[in-house]
Design a protein that fits this description.
The complex is a heterodimer of chains A (281) and B (325). Chain A is mainly α. Helix content of chain A is 77%, strand content 0%. In chain A, α3 packs parallel to α7, α5 runs antiparallel to α7 and α7 packs antiparallel against α8. Chain B is elongated, with a radius of gyration of 24 Å. In chain B, β6, α5 and β7 form a beta-alpha-beta unit. With 325 residues, chain B is α/β, with parallel strands linked by helices. Chain B has twelve helices and 13 strands. In chain B, α2 crosses α3, α3 packs across α4 and α7 crosses α10. Chain B starts with a strand and ends in a 6-residue tail after the last helix. Classes of the chains: A mainly alpha (281), B alpha/beta (325). The interface between A and B is large, with 46 and 47 residues.
Chain lengths: 281, 325
């Protein structure tokens, strides 16, 4: 086969290659990527153990304190048992989800897989969108299951001293909301990973925002403008949906707060997508 | 078919690729040659759309990489930089690439067989030796049975067996009518692999021509002549349009006991010099064509990249073969 002959035969074949493999194939590829690394499995295992374990342990400890009379009976566990059940595990469990969110994006860069990914799918936004969808669905399914498990276990533990059930006002919303909060938190962390592109930096920023900056804003004047700043902070606003009883400083409804969190996350993802397209990979 | 037109890439003040133009044709192995830091990898990354060009364009079958539908079915690339997650197995690495192109999973096993990684396909990639990693990279590049292959320093760090494997693979693919562009800073490797060469230095084109032509052009082929009658022969050669450097040391190879004067002749082939000598009955003790190696040619070509860059920019059509205009 002569060189010119090859050109003539090959070129039409390439032209015929037609439309790209559908978006479903890219979703499938992202699913293969996320399930085939140990960091995914380990992060989720840690999330499950920490959330269920801490929630059960601390709820039991609180109930035990009430039963033995060492705590006045009007304490938190009686006033808002769902908060004790859901938030004790969430405080640390959410970090596993946040770390996984960062890793899903930054390991692409630290390992160089981003080059393989972008060679396969050079329309870069498709990679980011597919990654977000696959990751969000995974986290949503796992965290909803664990949220309900946490709640039912906790409800059984507090049963001797008080009754909490999904039939009570806002309780179902708080349990479902815990999964929703974790899903968006994961995407929030993924977006920061896309911006920072370095694992250590990304994790430090996300954990700093969740555990340090958010709570620190609570020190601002809680009865003046400070409560607005605190309420509109991404992870704080997102957390409202996980509570049955509103916080003292809360200026947004649970769903409004969740909307604010989604808005922040969407903004970061848009910036991340813009930079992904613009930067050299 | 790869077309690079006026391609320029700046990183801040540094110009990595400077108005580079060349084309890579199907059915042959094209060597992409240049010293380290000449801009070879950057050029490949620009062709593949991983880096954005400051100006100019690089197209594959007339399309930008990003506009190719299912690009891995058109272009396969083996980059020098690692692009595999160390915690992921070879099979899963190839599987996600195959899925992204709508290729069947069966294709993954075919590639694993082809590169001989079937037995270790389930192991994590970080446990692979350099040779195995390179084989995985080749499997990824060939996954979509592409028409165009870009290989960036594919033999770097490979053992002789691996080098031979890559070399034969490239020749085989070219013989199937595929377009193969392979970069290297090893001249000798290119001499035995490439049919055509694109030589760059400091981001600029120095030469683009068939390998043999680059070798010939490189140090301007010369002939070493020893004769007791140096003056008469010099006159004859000069009349015939050649030029003579008298008394230069011809280096090793001559008879060390021979004290006859030695000439280095350029501009005339050895046969013509012999003819001239015979016609005037001049005795020759030695008549040796000095064949430049690709290495000589390369070193001379790149010794002053700036000068040659200007030359090729000014008169590329005359000095370089027809594929570069």
């Amino acid at each position: 086969m002569s060189a010119t002959g090859a050109t003539a035969e090959v070129a039409p074949a390439v032209a015929q290659q037609g439309r790209p493999a559908g978006f479903g194939y890219i979703l499938l590829a992202e699913w293969t990527k996320i399930r085939s690394v140990r960091s995914t499995v380990w992060s989720l295992v840690i999330y499950v153990i920490v959330t269920l374990g801490l929630s059960a342990l601390l709820t039991w400890a609180t109930v035990h304190a009430v039963q033995t009379g060492r705590t006045p009976r009007n304490t938190d566990v009686l006033a808002d048992p769902s908060a004790v059940i859901l938030h004790t595990g969430l405080l640390l469990g959410q970090l596993a989800i946040a770390v996984l969110g960062v890793l899903v994006m930054t390991t692409e860069y630290s390992t160089g897989v981003i080059r393989a990914s972008l060679l396969a799918v050079p329309k870069r936004l498709r990679v980011l969108v597919a990654k977000c969808i696959v990751f969000a669905v995974l986290i949503f399914v796992v965290s909803e299951i664990i949220s309900f498990c946490t709640f039912f276990i906790g409800a059984a533990i507090v049963h001797p001293v008080t009754v909490v059930s999904l039939n009570q006002p806002d309780v179902t919303r708080a349990v479902i909301g815990t999964g929703l909060y974790l899903t968006v938190l994961g995407l929030f962390a993924l977006a920061i990973g896309a911006l920072i592109r370095h694992t250590a930096g990304g994790i430090a920023i996300v954990i700093g925002l969740v555990l340090v900056v958010g709570p620190l804003l609570g020190l601002l004047d809680p009865y003046g403008w400070g409560k607005h700043v605190h309420s509109w902070f991404p992870t704080t606003a997102g957390g409202f949906i996980t509570s049955v009883q509103p916080e003292d400083f809360q200026t947004l409804s649970p769903w409004q707060g969740f909307g604010v969190f989604c808005g922040w996350t969407a903004l970061l993802l848009v910036i991340g997508g813009y930079l992904l397209r613009r930067r050299d990979a | 078919m790869i077309e690079v037109r006026n391609l320029t890439k700046r990183f801040g003040n540094k110009v990595a690729v400077d108005h580079l133009s060349f084309s890579v044709n199907p059915g042959q192995v094209t060597g992409f040659l240049g010293p380290n830091g000449a801009g070879k990898s950057t050029t490949m990354r620009l062709i593949l759309g991983l880096d954005h060009a400051t100006s100019g364009s690089a197209t594959i079958f007339g399309k930008h990489y990003a506009d190719l539908a299912n690009p891995l079915r058109t272009v396969g690339a083996l980059l020098e930089a690692k692009s595999v997650h160390g915690g992921r197995s070879a099979r899963n690495h190839l599987l996600f690439l195959a899925q992204s192109q709508g290729l069947p999973a069966r294709r993954v096993d075919e590639m694993l067989d082809l590169v001989g990684l079937r037995d270790v396909a389930g192991k994590r990639a970080r446990s692979y030796s350099l040779g195995m990693s390179q084989r995985l990279g080749v499997a990824a590049a060939l996954l979509g049975d592409p028409h165009v292959l870009l290989l960036d320093e594919p033999v770097n760090g490979l053992d002789p067996e691996g080098v031979l494997w890559i070399r034969n693979l490239m020749k085989h693919l070219a013989s199937q009518g595929k377009t193969v562009l392979v970069s290297s800073h090893l001249m000798n490797e290119m001499a035995v692999t490439a049919d055509h060469l694109v030589v760059i230095g400091r981001g600029r084109l120095i030469a683009a021509a068939p390998t043999a032509e680059v070798v010939a052009r490189g140090s301007g082929q010369s002939v070493r002549v020893r004769t007791p009658d140096a003056d008469r022969l010099t006159a004859l050669i000069t009349d015939a349009g050649g030029s003579v450097i008298p008394g230069s040391n011809g280096g090793p190879g001559g008879d060390p006991g021979d004290k006859t004067p030695m000439l280095t002749v350029t501009g005339l082939p050895a046969a013509r010099i012999g003819q001239l000598a015979a016609s005037s009955a001049i005795v020759l003790h030695e008549l040796t064509p000095q064949l430049a190696t690709l290495e000589d040619a390369f070193l001379e070509l790149t010794s002053d990249s700036l000068e040659f860059g200007h030359r090729s920019a000014d008169v590329p059509a005359q000095t370089i073969d027809g594929s570069v205009r």
